[in-house]
Amino acid sequence: MFFWKTHRIIVTIVNTTNTTATGNKITIAPMSTAAHRFETLALHAGQSVDNTLSRGVPVYRTASYLFKNTEHASNLFALKELGNIYTRLMNPTTEVLEARMSELEGGAASVAVASGTAAIFNTIITLAEAGDNIVASRNLYGGTYTQFDAILPKLGITVTFVDPFKPEEFEQAINERTRALYIETISNPTLNYTPISAIADVAHRNGLPLVVDATFTTPFLLRPIEHGADIVINSLTKWIGGHGSAIGGCITDAGTFNWAKGRHPLFTEPDANYHGLRWALDLPEPLAPIAFALRVRTVPLRNIGACISPDNAWIFIQGLETLPLRMTRHSENAMLVARHLQKHPEVAWVRYPGLEGDPSYPAASKDLNNGFGGMVVFGAKGGYDTAIKIIDTIKIFSHVANVGDAKSLILHPASTSHSQMTEEQQRASGLSRELIRLSIGLEHPLDLIEALDRALKNS
Ligand SMILES: *Cc1c(COP(=O)(O)O)cnc(C)c1O
Q1: Core-most of 69, 126, 179, 318, by most CB within 10 Å?
Q2: Would you say residue 33 has pLDDT above 90?
Q3: Is residue 293 part of a domain?
């Protein structure tokens, strides 16, 4: 089964492969879940119970799907009918994850892929080709920064980095080959919240889409599309999976961007990747609004191949079911830890978007619902050497390069995740040498506070 949610309508294209089927049936039904709230959607959206009556979402562990006959097969390949061909492109378990993510983000269609990193790369190469430009925030996840700074330029795509708090810098950096603007909600590791609507205004004034990496907030805290984002990226690996047990990413298309305005030749020129299709001009309703998501699926996902496994898709569906509960507790625990560190005599500074004096607080408290997330960063008065000692001696916190686990995690980004950056680049993105990054888990908050106190005392 294939779900394309467009605007307020779900298009269910039922592709049955059992022999009693008379062919593909297309039903257009009102959005059944529109009235439901986040917690309910997190448990139910996107699943329609199949003929085994399984209550849990089944894992369809298959590489390929039967064609009913040669006509059916050729129709599927020509996009005349939508249906399952091969798991690199689509899978019924993954479709539940994608439909649920679309509902939770308030988007029109989603594509789940192998990792957050693949989600970012697939997004960029769907929008831009050699000679094109992206204007991006300078405060980015380390892997994203390297992809933009060192890999995309080798493919001929330039990235101009600007200050996310100066929308005018985005405006000034845009040239006639710019294809998108790119920001993170709460940036890693500086924990600055970028007000989305200000950058979305710049993007839309210039006929460009805004891409937002919303990994640190998840749709439970913030739905970027409501603030003007056109494309939302989530690393599912983090809080959505929630247990540090699988890698995955998701791209959600708001379904509202007009690709036909002349700024995106990849959408208006015949595409050699797909029968000469002009994505912004030739797609039938109701597929036209999700031209971007369709191109992600049929061009990079199909031909570069960073697909998610159905088993991992299932893990992320499990994660989504408890996301509201976990994000609430992550946020509560992080707030308690941040407040404690703020008062600590050995701590020089603390950043948490939920602290009233934090530079991000005014905008974050306006845009975020349900909490400020699970990340806290701080610097000890002892500086770099103390930071290293804290990490080497602290209990409970696991020293790993991950965030968003149910367990608390600790990292020194300057010497690990962001070590590809020069000291100057680190400073420009607000990353100081002594910064310690905490991903606050679901342990009892007093145990976390005591562990931090002991490590600070001994370092
Ligand atoms: C982890 C992360 C990514 C990359 O996701 P992976 O699933 O690890 O590839 C991208 N952006 C942010 C903000 C992240 O935290």
Answers
A1: 126
A2: no
A3: yes
